[in-house]
Specification:
The complex is a heterodimer of chains A (109) and B (909). Chain A is of the alpha+beta class. Chain B is α+β, with helices and mostly antiparallel strands. Chain B is 53% helix and 14% strand. Chain B has 27 helices and 25 strands. In chain B, the strands form 4 sheets. In chain B, strands 1, 3, 4, 5, 6, 7, 8, 9, 10, 11, 13 and 14 form a 12-stranded mixed β-sheet that branches. Chain B is globular, with a radius of gyration of 37 Å. The chains are: A alpha+beta (109), B alpha+beta (909).
């Protein structure tokens, strides 16, 4: 396995939305989760995570509250809003189309 | 919901910025701690772990900046930051700020003042329901007019109004309103002094057509038009209710008398409604059918030959003004063809008449026609003044930017974007222009009261609503912003275009020299255009002032000094018509007895009173002369009229006491009329008759010198005079001309004499002739005075501009001047060097200005009197003034240059 791939442009939003779709998470957990699930292949640039989170919040797709973590610390927890859920569906569908297309090209060529 | 949430977030980022920032720091700190803990758990030392965590996250300050960018409120924050920065910068240079703000305040204030007059008089709609659907019939400027004779279409008779109202297909309603003449209101039997109010006689559908509801009680419902004298009740305005009845809610049902006839108050109109006449607020609305009661002794209700009504209609849905014009035009032709109008009322060419239908939403106004052109002229003038002010401020900014060149270079070198710097400098301009604008609004509203007085004179009572309103404030805001861009953009672009390396290396003083090559042309262009505009304004002012002088010095054909004009209405005072002749003779007797009175005479229309009669005539034994404008003016005058007023009789005789009832009808005609009808013939003994009364034939007994009775401008009209005593039973209001040494002193004694003569006789007007004449040229006086004021203002602003630029050149060349003087150049030589530069600039401006004068000559010519738009004395004088100002503006810094101490100047290097 080579170096962790850079995130495909524009997919960070999708990953964030998907990651918090089950339960609210703070930034650190989101980064960890993405890494874990992708079996360490996708390494989120930590620096770009927070601007992305703030942008999604401004767009009204995710909602932030201050809450307690399992260890009893104060952290900013992000959860999906209704609009965010719709957006997630949209992004998933788009991703589906795109990856199918790329797969096709990759196999045929 | 989402939009609302987003708005909440934005507002929070803006208003609770510190909390939002703190949260962001906390969030990132938490991240770092978690990362560090993980690494410690993996066996790393705590310090090392913290460093590793920070490396993993990346540069904190950049992440924070990116997060802030995501808030989408950055531009507001930046803007606020720029505003704060600008305010601080302006506070640091108070002299610059004060000069710039004042220039702008004067410029913007002048624009606001003139615009608010235009808005009140020309643009604003009446506060009624959908004013855009109202149309005016006839001439909307003939407010308060009345004329007798054959049919006309600028004003309407009541029978013609009824025809138009009933038969038109395009209006959902058409109302009529007319003047009441003098209206005396008595609210209480015990109060001896009745007071005057402004009333309108209106048809019963007046309020319904306008869509004005009652504020209290009710308005008219249409029943009022049923029959004459059947509706003795009135509606009063909110203003009158407050003023006269102290807002008494019990005013409904109260009795008042109007010209001694009892009426009941049935309603009050809403506070914003002042009637349909812009410039004259109406106090009382009276049903049209009460006209006889309001004007005792006069009956206009069934008369086709008394024209006194203005008509306003509301278009049916889907009908355009053009369609209404066409439809009413053909209806009018049908009415004429249908012979409902008595034949002798039709005049010579009824086919030529047509009814004008125009948008009526802005109401009627006599001021509008008189002042729309002067106001347009003044608007152009103040716009030019503002341009000069802009050029001044732009120049100041350029100079200031040169002083800040080093600061700007440093900021550019540190990585500030040029766009960002331009935005910041522009913000500074906008802050300046808004400061100027706000101050200007105060100037404007303070000036407007004075302007109004200039416009209307002191004797007429205007009611223009000049309180600040949204339209005017929006105009001012727009002008201020535009101004800010105009004077700010070029200097901002210019001063941020710097080559960094040399700019940073050199000292700031040398920098001014280095940047000068680029900077100067703009500054010079600004000064040259200031001078050009100033010259244009000065010449304009000169032409307008000379026009006014020409009008004021115009030979009237009789001495204008020493005449006092008295206007009376004996019919309204209850004098029976058959006794009017005796009344006139007795009155003359009484007035002559007043000490100080040299002589007294009477005429029906008076001089410059605003009332004039005219008719078309037929010469006995001759076919009518074809003439597109066959009106001849006439007046009825008492014996001695020509002697007392001072109009020479050139041929034949004037009138005397022998020309009285029962003698042969005679007439005196003026030179113009004699030349027109009797060229190369002896006019004495010729006979003619007015076409509306062909059986009454006048014999010409004299020819009088041409005299100006009502108009200063234009040619003297053809005019004839008739002896008043030959027929006085149909006399209405008339004027007495009183010759005396000092008219002002005699005003009170005359008023008292009239009261003694007949206590019921109201003095309608009592003013020196000069006042009447001045009122007839109020528009010329307004333009002349204001253009002079604005011309002077422009001159001051331009000279400040020139002074600034020349001072700056001198300062920049101190070194050079020092060297020249060290090498032996004399004071005069140095002074000339500076002056030459000044004069070159002024000359360029003067040439441009003269070209502009040349181009605007045609427009100007129509507004002048008695001189050409290229009047040489005015052109020469204005140019000389400008050269003189240039010499002064250049001479002061120039003489300062001659006092430069060479050693001092050289050491300065």
């Amino acid at each position: 396995m080579g170096k962790p791939s850079d995130l495909v442009q524009g997919t960070l939003d999708l990953l964030i939305l998907k990651t918090i779709s089950l339960e609210p998470k703070h930034g650190w957990a989101i980064a960890k989760r993405i890494q874990q699930i992708s079996q360490e292949v996708l390494q989120v640039q930590q620096g770009s995570l927070y601007p992305a989170l703030h942008r999604l919040e401004q767009q009204g797709w995710i909602h932030a509250v201050w809450g307690e973590t399992e260890t009893g610390r104060q952290a900013k927890l992000y959860s999906l809003t209704e609009a965010g859920r719709v957006q997630l569906e949209k992004e998933l569908a788009q991703w589906e189309r795109l990856s199918t297309a790329i797969n096709l090209v990759a196999k045929m060529a | 919901m989402r939009a609302l949430d987003r708005l909440r977030l934005r507002l929070r980022s803006l208003l609770r910025r510190e909390a939002v920032e703190a949260e962001m720091h906390a969030e990132l700190r938490f991240h770092l701690e978690m990362q560090a803990e993980e690494l410690i758990a993996a066996g790393m030392g705590p310090v090392e772990a913290r460093h590793a965590a920070m490396r993993a996250l990346g540069p904190l300050s950049r992440i924070e900046e990116e997060c802030r960018d995501m808030r989408r409120t950055r531009w507001i924050e930046t803007f606020l930051q720029d505003v704060r920065y600008a305010l601080r910068a302006l506070r640091l240079s108070p002299a610059f700020t004060i000069v710039a703000t004042l220039s702008l305040a004067l410029g913007i204030g002048a624009n606001t003042a003139i615009f608010s007059l235009m808005d009140a008089l020309l643009l604003r709609s009446l506060p009624v329901q959908t004013p855009g659907r109202l149309v005016a019939l006839g001439d909307p400027s003939r407010v308060g007019g009345k004329s007798e004779g054959s049919i006309r279409t600028d004003l309407f008779s009541l029978p013609l109004y009824r025809e138009l109202r009933e038969k038109n297909q395009v209006l959902s309603g058409l109302y009529a309103s007319g003047r009441t003449g003098r209206l005396e209101v008595g609210t209480d039997r015990s109060s001896a002094q009745p007071e005057r109010a402004r009333g309108r006689l209106v048809s019963g559908n007046y309020f319904a057509v306008l869509g004005v509801p009652a504020f209290l009680g009710r308005t008219f419902n249409g029943e009022e038009d049923r029959s004459a004298g059947s509706a003795p009740y009135v509606v009063i305005s909110h203003d009158y209710w407050q003023r006269r009845f102290a807002s008494d809610p019990g005013v409904l049902g109260r009795a008042i008398t109007l010209n001694n006839y009892p009426f009941t108050i049935i309603g009050v109109t809403p506070p914003e409604f002042f009637g349909d006449i812009v410039g004259t607020a109406t106090d009382v609305w009276i049903p049209m059918m009460m006209q006889r009661q309001v004007n005792p002794g006069r009956d206009f209700l069934e008369r086709w030959d008394v024209h006194w009504l203005l008509l306003m209609g509301r278009l049916k849905p889907g009908v355009s003004v053009e369609q209404a014009r066409g439809s009413i035009g053909s209806l009018f032709k049908q009415i004429i063809a249908s012979q409902v109008i008595p034949e002798d009322m039709l005049g010579d060419r009824p086919g030529d008449l047509h009814i004008d239908v125009s948008p009526g939403g802005a109401g009627f106004s006599y001021l509008r026609r008189q002042f729309s052109r002067p106001l347009a002229t003044l608007m152009a003038i103040v716009a030019l003044v503002l341009l000069i002010a802009c050029a001044n401020v732009a120049n100041l900014l350029l100079e200031r930017a040169t002083g800040r060149q080093k600061e700007i270079s440093v900021r550019l070198a540190l990585g500030a974007g040029r766009g960002r710097l331009v935005r910041q400098l522009l913000t500074e301009s906008l802050v300046l222009s808004l400061l100027g604008g706000s101050l200007g609004v105060f100037f404007a509203f303070w000036a407007d009261a004075g302007l109004l007085k200039l416009m209307i004179g002191s004797t007429r009572s205007p009611a223009l609503d000049l309180r600040p309103n949204l339209t005017v404030l929006a105009f001012t805001a727009a002008v201020s912003l535009l101004t800010g861009l105009l004077f700010g953009l070029a200097p901002a672009l210019r001063s941020t275009r710097v080559e960094l390396a040399p700019a940073l290396k050199e000292s700031s003083r040398n920098l001014a020299g280095a940047g000068a090559g680029r900077r100067w042309p703009l500054g010079k262009i600004l000064v040259v255009s200031q001078f050009a505009i100033s010259l244009l304004l000065l010449i304009g002012a000169g032409l307008f002032v000379r026009t006014l002088v020409n009008l004021q010095r115009l030979d009237l054909g009789y001495p204008r000094e020493g005449l006092l004009m008295l206007q009376l209405d004996p019919v309204a005072a209850g004098v029976p018509r058959e006794r009017l002749g005796t009344f006139v003779e007795q009155l003359l007797e009484r007035l002559r007895a007043v000490p100080g009175v040299d002589a007294v005479t009477l005429s029906e229309n008076g001089l410059f009173s605003g009332t004039e009669s005219s008719t078309s005539i037929a010469i006995s034994g001759r076919p009518p002369i074809p003439d597109p404008d066959d009106d001849v003016a006439y007046d009825r005058v008492a014996p001695d009229y020509f002697e007392v007023v001072g109009i020479p009789i050139l041929q034949g005789r004037g009138f005397g006491t022998e020309d009285r009832i029962g003698t042969l009808p005679v007439a005196v005609i003026n030179e113009t009329m004699a030349r027109f009808y009797f060229p190369k013939q002896n006019p004495i003994g010729q006979r003619f008759a007015g076409t509306d009364e062909p059986e009454r034939v006048y014999e010409v007994v004299g020819v009088s010198k041409d005299a100006r009775d009502h108009e200063l401008r234009g040619a003297v009209p053809r005019r004839y005079y008739l002896p008043l005593l030959q027929r006085s039973d149909d006399l209405s209001a008339f004027n007495a001309e009183i010759r005396t040494r000092d008219p002002k002193v005699l005003i009170e004694p005359i008023r008292k004499a009239v009261q003694d003569f007949n206590p019921r006789l109201a003095v309608l007007d009592l003013v020196p002739l000069g006042t009447n004449i001045n009122e007839s040229i109020d528009d010329d006086r307004l333009v002349a005075k204001l253009s002079a004021v604005f011309g002077l203002l422009a001159l001051i602003l331009a000279s400040i501009g020139l002074y600034g630029v020349i001072s700056f050149t001198v300062a920049r060349r101190t070194n050079e001047i020092g060297i020249r003087m060290a090498l032996g150049a004399g004071h005069n030589r140095v002074l000339w060097m500076v002056l030459r530069e000044t004069l070159l600039l002024a000359l360029a401006g003067i040439i441009l200005g003269l070209l502009a004068v040349l181009a605007s000559g045609r427009v100007m010519a129509s507004r002048l009197y008695g001189l050409s738009a290229y009047d040489p004395p005015t052109l020469v004088a204005a140019t000389l003034v400008l050269v003189l100002v240039a010499v002064l503006a250049g001479g002061i810094p120039g003489s300062r240059a001659t006092r430069v101490d060479p050693t001092e100047a050289l050491r300065y290097e």
